[in-house]
Design the sequence.
């Protein structure tokens, strides 16, 4: 087990290095090949050549690509200095660079947005797991019943309807007309009641989409598992049906659910773009959208790396949970 964890951690580190190099090349090398100078994005096209050259020297944009990449990676762990003669700017670790538009360090912007995205993803994940898996199990056990047909019809609607439709519809009904939910986002430590009120609609909207997918997946998996030989053997031993479902059927059902959960949760932690934009939540998704519209390359790079980190860590946790959920899985 320990050797497996060490190997997986090494693989995670290598994956993050590859993602960092690839992302850095996309944002800082490809624009040069396309004839666009990142220094112009920082100072503006109307600036004089001396100012542009000063920014190019300060940000290290005139250095070879691999030197720029090394300075960027070094800044993540040890911080770095942006210097152009007497003009020196300190960027403490982890240094993701400075925003082209706000001229502020990227990392503080990320730390302000991450708790919002974490709150959104955690609450929605809890709702869709409880609702989706429970609905799928009941539908599988009552196959062909009115409950099964109604649940799968609603699940099909949940998968088909996009977030920006269900989100705007819920805002129109529950916020603008009924005035049940209103107010801007507040952190949990500042105002727990306002925090909950501002997130309840985004939680439900996001969970509705994912619960529908998990309900369909759980139902299909349960229907396949309930016909397996070991299920019939458990019943032949005289075990009660709830015990058969809980101890035997659900163990195998959780394996594909965990696989999908790791990918979905990792992607959400990297920014729920549509949900955060629809509900005006200042999370990673909206930060990325604003940065893209403003061509703020360092912020886009920072959000991309944080998203990649969440995805690979979620995959690592899922791999470790396989052995806990299903004893037949052995980690070599």
Sequence:
């Amino acid at each position: 087990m320990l050797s497996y964890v060490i190997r997986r951690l090494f693989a995670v580190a290598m994956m993050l290095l590859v993602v960092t190099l690839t992302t850095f090349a996309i944002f800082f090398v490809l624009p040069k090949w396309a004839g666009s100078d990142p220094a112009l994005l920082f100072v503006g096209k109307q600036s004089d050549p001396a100012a542009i050259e000063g920014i190019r020297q300060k940000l290290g944009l005139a250095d070879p690509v691999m030197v720029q990449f090394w300075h960027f990676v070094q800044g993540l762990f040890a911080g770095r200095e942006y210097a152009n003669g007497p003009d020196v700017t300190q960027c403490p670790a982890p240094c993701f660079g400075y925003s082209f538009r706000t001229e502020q360090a990227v990392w503080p912007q990320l730390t302000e947005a991450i708790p919002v995205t974490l709150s959104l993803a955690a609450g929605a994940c809890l709702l869709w797991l409880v609702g989706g898996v429970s609905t799928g199990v009941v539908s599988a056990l009552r196959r062909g019943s009115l409950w099964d047909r109604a649940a799968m019809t609603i699940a099909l609607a949940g998968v088909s309807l996009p977030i920006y439709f269900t989100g705007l519809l819920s805002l129109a009904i529950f916020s603008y007309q009924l005035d049940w939910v209103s107010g801007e986002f507040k952190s949990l430590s500042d105002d727990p009641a306002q925090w909950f009120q501002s997130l309840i609609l985004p939680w439900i909207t996001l969970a509705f989409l994912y619960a529908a997918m998990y309900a369909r997946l759980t139902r299909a998996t349960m229907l396949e598992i309930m016909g397996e030989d070991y299920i019939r053997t458990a019943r032949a031993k005289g075990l009660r049906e709830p015990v058969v479902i809980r101890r035997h059927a659900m163990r195998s059902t959780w394996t594909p659910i965990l696989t999908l959960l790791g990918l979905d949760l990792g992607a959400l932690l990297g920014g729920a773009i549509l949900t955060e934009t629809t509900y005006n939540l200042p999370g990673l998704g909206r930060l990325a959208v604003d940065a893209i519209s403003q061509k703020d390359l360092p912020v886009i790079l920072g959000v991309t790396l944080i998203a990649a980190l969440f995805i690979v860590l979620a995959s690592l946790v899922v791999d470790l949970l396989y052995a806990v959920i299903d004893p037949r899985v052995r980690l070599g």
In short: Residues 2-91 form one domain. The chain has two domains: 2-91, 107-325.
